[in-house]
Specification:
Layout (H helix, E strand, L loop, with lengths): L6 H15 L3 H6 L2 E4 L5 H8 L7 E5 L2 H9 L3 E4 L10 E6 L23 H10 L3 E12 L5 H10 E10 L4 E9 L1
Parallel strand pairs: 1-2, 1-4, 2-3, 4-5
Antiparallel strand pairs: 5-7, 6-7
């Protein structure tokens, strides 16, 4: 099953477009982007709409069906558990991680970020900095439903963070962070 775009995806997409709009045309043309956990490719498509050449965008997902969809949409795509099958560095890494705590009868593993809900994001934060170019950024979506103690600790240790987007829903608050390596 391919993750369908929802409120979280749309919020992140608007932040992706806003970030790219601040870049010069020359920077956009040479920008290397990773859409990690690409799902239905809304973030990769947002990059193209904002002026990033399609051939400069790598899409990756743990689900083979999402990778197949990305390839059908003309993106270079690989099946990867976080960065396990990826090499190189990127100017922008976009990630809308699964962030809900696991439930006993979970039927939606694409939204489950581990037993507590923060494990996938924590692993991402540990690994992302090795794949980020010197002046690159991570655009990361987080939810108020995810425990934040470990995530905040990793962000403070490895990154400079700026909140660039927020959306309040009746049951949670979503926000997007722009992270730069320290």
């Amino acid at each position: 099953m391919v993750y369908e775009a929802a409120e979280d995806s749309f919020l992140l997409s608007s932040c992706v477009k806003a970030h790219i709009s601040t870049m010069s045309k020359k920077a956009r043309e040479s920008c290397k982007v990773l859409d990690l956990g690409c799902g239905n490719c809304i973030q990769a498509e947002s990059c193209v709409e904002a002026g990033i050449p399609r051939e400069n965008i790598m899409a990756a997902d743990i689900e083979e069906k999402a990778v197949e969809l990305a390839r059908q949409k003309g993106f270079c795509a690989v099946c990867s558990d976080l960065f396990s099958s990826l090499e190189g560095t990127f100017d922008i890494i976009i990630f809308n991680p699964p962030y809900l705590p696991a439930h006993k009868n979970d039927k939606a593993p694409d939204t489950t970020g581990g037993k507590r809900g923060d494990e996938t994001t924590a692993a991402f934060l540990e690994q992302a900095r090795q794949h980020l170019k010197e002046n690159g950024v991570v655009l990361l979506l987080l939810s108020s439903l995810t425990p934040h103690k470990k995530i905040e600790k990793l962000i403070k240790k490895y990154y400079e963070a700026e909140q660039i987007g927020e959306k309040k829903l009746f049951f949670e608050k979503l926000f997007v962070l722009r992270l730069r390596k320290k």
